[in-house]
Each structure stands twice: as C-alpha cells, then as structure tokens.
C-alpha cells in the first residue's frame, strides 16, 4: 500500500529522479502547503507529532532536536548528513540516486521550520552518481524557483550548498561533520556545547540524516499523526532496511518498524545464500552488537526489541552471516576498519582501536594467546564511554559481542593457531 | 620480534614554497568560492583540495600552502586536512586508481578474491602502481555498495557485483 | 553557588570548570591536555570524573560547575578509567625516562606512579616514530614520547599565533609536525617546551645538560625588555655542585624557564627570556682599569673620585638595567652633589632582526627598568652639547656610545672593546648576583633573587657609588 511507503511508492526508472516525475507523484506539494498555509512552528510540531527518530543510527527524535534551536538567533544552519559510511548501510545512496528531490523538499521544509537561510548537504566524497543526481536535482529546483531567493514567490529564501567530504567515516558523526564543513580535520567536538546551541561556525545548527529529512515531506503531506501510526508506537514509521552479506537477494527494503528480522532475511532477501544455515546477523550496521541465529528467530526491527536483545537497530544495515564463516577473520575486517577511521584525537580510541586490530592480526597469523583474548575483552571496557565521540563505542561493540557470542571460535584459533572455518569469509 | 613501523615520514624541508596559482585554477577557485556564504570561506578548504587533485592527480605541500594563501586561512589548517582525509593523494598515482572495498559486506561476498584477481592481472600489490603508470591499486573502506557487493571504484566510477569476468572487462576498457 | 565534591560541600565560582573547582579545594584531578590559558581540547580523557551519579563519566575540564552539582573524583569507575586511559597513553610510549630530560618533572611519570596500571597489558611491540627531530635550532621533537595532547598546537594557534605546529595524519599514525612555509622561528617557540607534559618537546640548549633534580630554580626577572617577565633561573643545588672539571658549570645557569606571574607575563616568556642565562654568561668585565691598563679596585676608585672632584659639570648616565635599589643608592650617594646631572640611559636598543613590539609580551624598550630610572631621575634627554666635562657611563657601551673629547668612567658588567677607551673602568655585578626590583613599563614592581655570588674583584654598583661619594 503506497500510503504506507515513504520511499518505495513508485517504480524506479531512468527518469524517476527528475523533477517532472517527482512532481507527478505529488512532489513539492508538502512544501507548497507549508509555505502557504503553515507557520514554521507548525512544521516543527508536525515533526514532533510524527515521533520520527533520526535515521542515521543514533535515533534521536527529530522534533526534539529542532526544538532545541533558539529560533531568534540571527543565523541558523542546517546540515544534511549524506556522509553514509556505516558498513552495511546503503539507503541514503538510494535516496540521492533515485529520489533526490524528496531530500531537497525535506531540506527546504526543515529550513523553513528552523529559519535557515543556507543549508548544507555534506555528501561523502566517494559518491559519484549520487552527487551528480543531487546536483542535477538542485539545478532543476533552482531553475523553477524552488531553491534560492523567495521560494514559490513567498518570503522564504533558502540556498542549498552541496559540500563533498573526502574519505572519513568519522565525519558521519555530527560534530565531526561540522568541523569538516568548516574546512578542518573531522575531529569530533566535546559536548557541551551541542550543535543546536553552537554548531557550524558556532551558530545554532541542526544536523539530520538524508533519510530523516527525506521523510519530512511525507509527514507534512499526510500529517504527523499518520506517521506516528505506522510501525511500532515508541519507534514509529517505516525504514529503509538494507540487507547484505550471505543472502540470495541483497538490497533495500522499506518496511514498518516492528517488522520481523527473520522475515526480512528469509523472505524479502531470499534467505541465506545457497540455502545454508544462518550463523549470525549484525542488525543495524557494523557498530551494532552481533546476534546469533537463535537470537534472530523472534526479534523485530524496532528500537525496544533490539535494546532488549542487547543491540541496536542503528542505521538499519542488516548484515547476514552464514554457517561456515570464520568469525575471527570477520571481526578483524571490522577492527581494521575502525583503526583506519579513528580520527586520532582522543587517547582511548586512537590507541585502543589500533591495539585491538594488531592483536587480531597476530591471532589470525597464528600467534595469538589466551592473554590476547583477555585483552580483547578488557580493552573495550576502557574505551567505551571514555571517548569524545561514539566511534570508540562503535569500535568496541563488535569486539565485545563477537567474543561473547563466538568465544569458542576465538579460543580455538588461539589454541590451534588457525581458523576453525578455514578462514572463510565467503560461502 | 619485528619492529612495527607504522609510517615512514620523509624529513620536512626547512622551507616549503607555495605552488603558484595559475589562472585556470584560480578561476575554478573563484567559482567554488562564489557558492558559499562569505562567513563560510574557510569551508572551501576541502573543495579546493579536491579541485587541485582533480587537476594534478595529487596534492603537494606547496598546493596546500597555495590554498591557504588564497583563502587567508593558516597553512596548518590546510596541511592538516590534506594529510587527514583518505581521498587526498600526497604523491602521484596511476592514471586509473582502482579502489577495492575491503569492508564487511564486500568481504562476505568475495572482496579478497577481487583483490587477488586484480593483483594478478595488474602484476602489482595493493598500494603499488604499475610500471607503465596506468593503474594504482588500493583498498578502501565501505563505499555504500553493500547490496551490490563486491564493489570497487575506479577513479570516480563505481563498479559493483564484480566477478573475474567483469573485472577483466572493466580493465580492458581502460587505456 | 554550592556544589558537592567527594561528599564535601564547597563554593563554586560562576563559569569555572570542575578541574579548576577541584584544584581550588586542593583536590587534584589528573590531566594532560587542559591548560587554563588554552582552549579546552578534552582529548587526553584522564580528567574523567563522575558527575551527578551518571554512569557516563565526563571530562572535568569541559564540565562547568552548576548549582547543586555532585562531583566524585575517587569513585571506582573513575579510578578504573584513569588506569585504562594511562594504559592507552602508555601503550606506545617508549619509556625513555633513563635518557629523557623530562624525567623528574614529567606528568606522565607522576601520573603513572599514582594512577596507572602496574604493568602494561600489551604483548605487541611499540610503534616507533621519529625521534630527535629538529623542530627548530632551539627545540627537539620526539614523536614517540608525544601523547598528542595538542597543547603545543593550541599554543601556536591561540597565544603566539604563529600557527607553526599541527597534528597531521589520522588515528594512530597522527604526529605533531611543523607546518607552514618556513622554519619554526616563532619568538615564543620555547614555551611549548614548558607546557609539553612529557619529554616530547625539549630544549636543545639544555639537552642532556643535567638531571633536573640536581638543579633548583631561583626567582628572577628577564632584562630583555621593559615587560620584565618573571623567570626561573636554574642552578646546581649546593649539595650537587659539580667538582670537576673546574667550577665553571657551578657558576652558570643551566636553563631559564617561565615563572607564572599573573600581573605581568602570565605563564609565558619570549625566547629572549629563555636565553637569559646565555646573555648573562657573556664575557664579564672582571678587571678594574685606569687609562686602559689593569689596576686594583682601590686605584680605580681613587682615580674615579679624583676625576669627580675635578669635574665642573659631571653627568651620570644611569643604566636602565639598574635595579631600583642601585638607583636609590646613586641618588643617595651622588644625587645631591652640586652641578652633577643624572640622565637615564636606555642601554639597549632592538638588535637587527629582533622583534620590536608585538601583541603578546615583547616591548620596544629593550631595558627592564627604564620606568624605575625615570621615576627617580626624570626623562631629560642627554645632550653632550650641554657641556659636561666628565661622564659616568653606567651599563652597556657600544662604539657609538663612546663620548668624544670628554673623560669618562665606565661602570661595566660586561666586557666590551669600547670600555678599553674609558679613563676608569669599575666592574660591577649583574642582577643575577644580588636581590632587587625592577619597575616595568606598566609601573608594576617585580622582584629578583641572587642566583650566584658576584665574582671577586667586582663591586655592587650601590657600593661603588658609596665609594665614589667619599
């Protein structure tokens, strides 16, 4: 039913990203309605009523975040976080490639609600087609007066600037993104102050994810209450879940929150590759604690259920792992990633991520000891909660959860100097 | 036990001269600058670094100073940024920079084979450039192609759902 | 406002952070990157404390005291966090203590002893980095010892504004490096040596010169300009005096560091201040002279007294390097002598290439006590055409200062070729060799203590004036 779909409500063609097609499906109707019949605070209130939580991974309620901004400040910025980098996540890319106008409309609506004159879209530097499609959409929008001075002939003006990142996962963290936007290294900032108070160039700033902003037009068009009725109560709406790894049909699926994870894997994604048994699932991007096959049986894709299971729904990136995979080598893929992406600012993450990776490299080379596994259990407790930003926690959770749930495999590797699964990552 | 040397750092020369800003590049810089509100001029560090790399293939110390002068920001800001972001190359590379994703979803779908195949076809190891200057091979982190893994990026272009055959076809197209 | 720290109710000031609050109440929260004159970096994570019972610890440097706040600095979680943070900071630290100049005044040593884990848990070899990097002719950088607290970077960005230092590369590959076009010739560069909490930034002049526990600091004042910054001059402790070879090393200062003086220079001095011990170690005037030839002090004083007695219009050009006490002695001894004029002389001018004046400390007047001298003797400019027939030149004398066709007496601390042309030379002490005060350009008094005994055959100028008055 298309009214229950914020994104997958049309067939994707070679033209569906264009202004004409977007308008055909009702695009910019919400913006028109807002600019002509609503006050900025009405837009904010609809977002509050929707209960929409940030879709970048942190899940902070959008209306609340907007509410923190002092609307009387002379300059307020909006930064759209299009720095999609969480491993297992590829939904923002889809939106940029296939529904860029939906994002543009969302940015404009948010800017109207917040009183933003210059909005930035911070897009990761590697993106090629997403960047071109976004720039094309903005050119189309500017040409018809939807972006720029006096939008739709009214008093509201807003320019949208596309700003490319340059290869740094940590820039997906909102305060790191702001430092990067200011032309510096993406070192996250200590908080307080929070971006809503002192953000870009020390001005009040809201940072929102692509999917989050792209949901705003639907909410304004259909009403916040309608959005709040989708999915589960405390974590409402639909989400773009990405399924990757050992499945027959990897891809994106828009489903309401509360959807069965097992159903997503076995039905929507066609089940585990080659009909193999399921071994494990990382439910929300690589930074979320891993679940065993048993834990996946009855779990639903919503914040509360995930939290009860000791993990998070995160960015919605579901990574499926089949029986036969070497969990030790797989973990090292992640520790190598976090060590590479640690910004280097604070001591626990800078030293700890590199340390954990080196230990795993040694274990994999057959030189691990029981003491190494003790260290792998202990190091995360020294990082987690002690860092400037959540990358430290993100790096710690996989190590802790892999060791807790697949500890035998690690013990085997250390005892025998080799993998229990021939070091396999592919099946 | 072998010494774990993380990086070999060349000795910094006593003085570094800013690269002179030629007219073409200046025009591009001016065009980029016009996009941003005036109070956000320092934001231009990254766009200008990208601009230089697109023209030259890499970014030198002198280029970083040139950008600092143009923007009126301290040199340290540009030098730090140029050294911190993965995408900025600090030395010349091949005409086609092949960047293979080595992260989790791609690893589960055969990234290691992709790398091995490329190393074999190109005759170089990851981090190296072919003698004829055509290809540089690198591994990179998640490209957001998890649903179409394994994936790689050659210069700007994404190539996904890679197989040995596809890789050969892609390489064959590149001069 | 009232807050509770470790169960004790205390007063907190508006805007102060928990680190400052704790320190005011004699509770030391260990920290590396925080410095009260620099922006908050919050990167070392050593100052994490428990606030309002929340499970997530917070960095004390970035928590502003709020009414009824509850702070715990000794909770179990805090102690664990300190152990863990110390482990991370020490993970790749070379532990060069045996050959590192910072030993004995190193926060890393002190904190490891107090808060660190007993042993490293790491089984991996330490990452090696650059050592003995010539950051400048004055400063040596060791990237292995560096804990990346960024104090040095923030100093050059926020205080000296040379923006000379940065941290390049990412993650565990990060390292401090000189940036920008030229050499690191920031006139305040050496301050980074003091604020570096470890032995990563060291003075090349002081490199391997001595263990710091063999030395003791003496409070003094820099005489490089009219700011008169407070400094510490470091000498061998009495019980650690070196016996051989010769006593030269015993009678010289090993280094000069900044002494925090909120009224004058705060915690900083400029490089000229750091070099104070070297300028004070120039060849001294040790030999009294008459007519260019060596003489005894008695003979020289007799000759000087005779010249003074015969002079119709004598003038004293008082040194702006003189202390208030010496100037008072001059006034008392000779000030009321009829027809004797006292002028204030600014001995030192900016040297070629020297910073004249800047936004931070450096003043164009390169003398420490021009103000003290003018307060006593006015600011009439000296005019040779006024017909003085005898000059008592006190202080530094260059070729250009040698008076033409007039007899002159030189009260000198340092040797100079021009001095040989004086009719009488009386060697006098430097301010390292007595106690006294200078008055800086803002009228603020600053006290100095004697670092060494004066050499034999050298008079204190105050005594010289009393002798001349006889």
Question: What are its keywords?
Answer:
heterotrimer, B: about 180 residues, alpha+beta, Arc Repressor Mutant, subunit A, Glutaredoxin, four-stranded mixed sheet, 7 helices, 4 strands, C: about 475 residues, seven-stranded mixed sheet, five-stranded mixed sheet, elongated
Explained architecture:
The complex is a heterotrimer of chains A (427), B (175) and C (470). Chain A is an alpha/beta fold. Chain A has 3 domains: 19-229, NADH-ubiquinone oxidoreductase 51kDa subunit (Rossmann fold); 235-322, Roll (Ubiquitin-like (UB roll)), CATH 3.10.20.600; 327-416, de novo design (two linked rop proteins). Chain A contains 18 helices and 11 strands. Chain A has helices at residues 19-24, 29-37, 40-50, 62-67, 91-98, 100-114, 129-143, 174-181, 210-222, 224-228, 261-268, 293-296, 303-308, 327-341, 347-367, 370-383, 391-405, 407-416; strands at residues 77-82, 118-123, 159-164, 205-209, 231-232, 235-236, 238-245, 251-256, 278-282, 291-292, 317-322. Chain B has 175 residues and is an alpha+beta fold. Chain B has 2 domains: 23-84, NADH-quinone oxidoreductase subunit E (Arc Repressor Mutant, subunit A), CATH 1.10.10.1590; 96-173, Glutaredoxin (3-Layer(aba) Sandwich), CATH 3.40.30. Chain B has helices at residues 23-35, 45-56, 61-71, 75-84, 104-108, 111-122, 164-173; strands spanning 96-101, 135-140, 152-154, 157-159. In chain B, strand 3 (152-154) and strand 4 (157-159) form a beta hairpin. The longest helix of chain B has 13 residues, at 23-35. By secondary structure, chain C is α+β, with helices and mostly antiparallel strands. A 7-stranded mixed β-sheet of chain C has the order 15-14-20-19-18-16-17. Chains in contact: A-B, A-C, B-C. At the A-B interface, strand 3, strand 7, strand 11 and helix 14 of A face helix 2, helix 4 and helix 5 of B.
């Amino acid at each position: 039913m298309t009214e229950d779909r914020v994104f997958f409500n049309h067939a994707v063609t070679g033209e569906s990203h264009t202004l004409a097609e977007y308008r055909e499906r009702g695009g910019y109707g919400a913006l028109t309605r807002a600019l002509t019949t609503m006050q900025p605070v009405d837009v904010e209130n609809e977002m509050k009523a929707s209960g929409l939580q940030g879709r970048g991974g942190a899940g902070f309620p959008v209306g609340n975040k907007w509410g923190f901004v002092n609307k009387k400040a002379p300059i307020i910025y909006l930064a759209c976080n299009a720095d999609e980098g969480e491993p297992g996540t590829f939904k923002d890319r889809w939106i940029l490639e296939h529904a860029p106008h939906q994002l543009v409309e969302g940015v404009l609506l948010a800017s109207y609600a917040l009183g933003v004159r210059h909005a930035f879209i911070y897009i990761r530097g590697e993106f090629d087609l997403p960047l071109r499609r976004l720039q094309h959409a903005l050119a189309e929008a500017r040409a018809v007066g939807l972006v720029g001075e006096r939008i739709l002939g009214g008093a509201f003006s807003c320019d949208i600037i596309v700003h490319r990142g340059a290869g740094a996962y940590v820039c997906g963290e909102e305060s790191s993104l702001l430092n990067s936007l200011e032309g510096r290294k993406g070192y996250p900032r200590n908080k307080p102050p929070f971006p809503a108070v002192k953000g870009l160039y020390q001005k009040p700033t809201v940072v929102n994810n692509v999917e989050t902003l792209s949901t705003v037009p639907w909410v304004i068009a259909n009403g916040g209450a309608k959005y709040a009725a989708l999915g589960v109560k405390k974590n409402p709406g639909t989400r773009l879940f990405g399924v990757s790894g050992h499945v027959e049909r990897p891809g994106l699926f828009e489903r309401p929150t509360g959807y069965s994870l097992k159903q997503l894997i076995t039905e929507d994604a066609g089940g585990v590759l080659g009909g193999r048994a399921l071994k494990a699932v990382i439910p929300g991007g690589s930074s979320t604690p891993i679940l065993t096959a048993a834990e996946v049986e009855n779990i639903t894709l919503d914040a509360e259920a995930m939290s009860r299971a000791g993990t998070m729904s995160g960015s919605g990136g579901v990574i499926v792992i089949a029986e036969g995979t070497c969990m030790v080598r797989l973990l090292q893929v992640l520790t190598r990633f976090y060590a590479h992406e640690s910004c280097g600012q604070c001591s626990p993450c800078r030293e700890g991520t590199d340390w954990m990776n080196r230990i795993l490299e040694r274990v994999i080379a057959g030189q691990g000891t029981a003491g190494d596994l003790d260290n792998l259990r202990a190091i995360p407790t020294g990082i987690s909660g002690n860092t400037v930003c959540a990358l430290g926690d993100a790096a710690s959770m996989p190590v802790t959860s892999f060791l807790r749930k697949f500890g035998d495999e690690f013990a085997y590797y250390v005892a025998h100097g080799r993998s229990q699964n021939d070091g396999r990552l592919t099946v | 036990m072998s010494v774990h040397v993380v990086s070999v750092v060349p000795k910094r020369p006593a003085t570094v001269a800013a690269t002179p800003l030629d007219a073409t590049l200046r025009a591009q810089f001016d065009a980029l600058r016009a996009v941003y509100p005036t109070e956000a001029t320092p934001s231009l560090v990254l766009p200008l670094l990208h601009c230089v790399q697109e023209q030259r293939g890499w970014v030198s110390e002198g280029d970083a100073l040139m950008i600092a002068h143009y923007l009126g920001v301290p040199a340290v800001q540009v030098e730090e940024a140029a050294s911190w972001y993965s995408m900025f190359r600090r030395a010349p590379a091949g005409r086609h920079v092949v960047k293979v994703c080595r992260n989790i979803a791609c690893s589960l779908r055969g990234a290691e084979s992709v790398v091995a195949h490329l190393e074999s076809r190109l005759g170089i190891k990851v981090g190296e450039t072919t003698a004829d200057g055509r290809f540089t091979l690198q591994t990179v982190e998640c490209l957001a192609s998890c649903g179409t893994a394994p994936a790689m990026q050659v210069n700007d272009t994404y190539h996904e759902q890679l197989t040995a055959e596809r890789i050969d076809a892609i390489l064959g197209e590149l001069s | 406002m009232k807050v509770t720290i470790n169960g004790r109710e205390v007063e907190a000031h508006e805007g102060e952070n928990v680190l400052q609050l704790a320190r005011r109440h004699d509770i030391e929260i260990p920290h590396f990157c925080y410095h009260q004159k620099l922006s908050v970096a919050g990167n070392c994570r050593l100052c994490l404390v428990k606030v309002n019972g929340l499970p997530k610890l917070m960095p004390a440097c970035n928590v502003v005291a709020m009414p009824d706040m509850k702070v715990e600095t000794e909770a179990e979680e805090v102690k664990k966090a300190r152990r863990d943070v110390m482990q991370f900071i020490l993970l790749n630290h070379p532990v060069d203590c045996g050959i590192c100049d910072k030993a004995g005044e190193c926060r890393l040593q002190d904190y490891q002893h107090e808060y660190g884990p007993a042993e490293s848990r790491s089984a991996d070899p330490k990452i090696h980095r650059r050592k003995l990097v010539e950051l400048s002719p004055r400063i040596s950088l060791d990237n292995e010892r560096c804990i990346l607290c960024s104090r040095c970077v923030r100093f050059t960005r926020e205080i000296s504004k040379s923006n000379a230092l940065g941290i390049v590369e990412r993650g565990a590959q990060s390292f401090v490096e000189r940036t920008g076009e030229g050499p690191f010739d920031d006139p305040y560069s050496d301050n980074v040596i003091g604020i570096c909490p470890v032995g990563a930034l060291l003075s090349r002049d002081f490199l391997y010169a001595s263990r710091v526990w063999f030395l003791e600091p003496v409070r003094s004042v820099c005489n490089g300009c009219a700011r008169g910054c407070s400094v510490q001059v470091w000498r061998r402790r009495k019980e650690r005096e070196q016996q051989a070879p010769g006593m030269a090393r015993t009678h010289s200062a090993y280094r000069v560091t900044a002494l925090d003086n909120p009224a004058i220079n705060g915690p900083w001095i400029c490089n000229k201040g750091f070099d104070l011990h070297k300028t004070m170690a120039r060849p001294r005037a040790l030999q009294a002279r008459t007519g260019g030839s060596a003489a005894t002090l008695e003979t020289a004083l007799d000759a000087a007294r005779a010249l003074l007695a015969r002079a119709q219009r004598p003038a004293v050009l008082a040194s702006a390097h003189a202390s208030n006490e010496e100037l008072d002695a001059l006034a008392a001894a000779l000030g009321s002598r009829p027809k004797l004029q006292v002028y204030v002389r600014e001995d030192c001018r900016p040297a070629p290439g020297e910073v004249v004046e800047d936004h931070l400390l450096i003043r164009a007047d390169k003398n420490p006590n021009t103000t003290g001298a003018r307060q006593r003797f006015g600011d009439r400019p000296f005019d040779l055409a006024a017909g003085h027939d005898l000059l008592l030149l006190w202080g530094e004398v260059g070729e250009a200062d040698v008076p033409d066709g007039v007899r002159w007496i030189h009260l000198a601390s340092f040797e100079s070729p021009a001095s040989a042309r004086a009719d009488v030379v009386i060697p006098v002490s430097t301010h390292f060799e007595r106690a006294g005060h200078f008055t800086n350009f803002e009228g603020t008094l600053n006290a100095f203590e004697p670092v060494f005994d004066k050499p034999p055959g050298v008079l204190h100028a105050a005594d010289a004036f009393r002798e001349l008055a006889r």
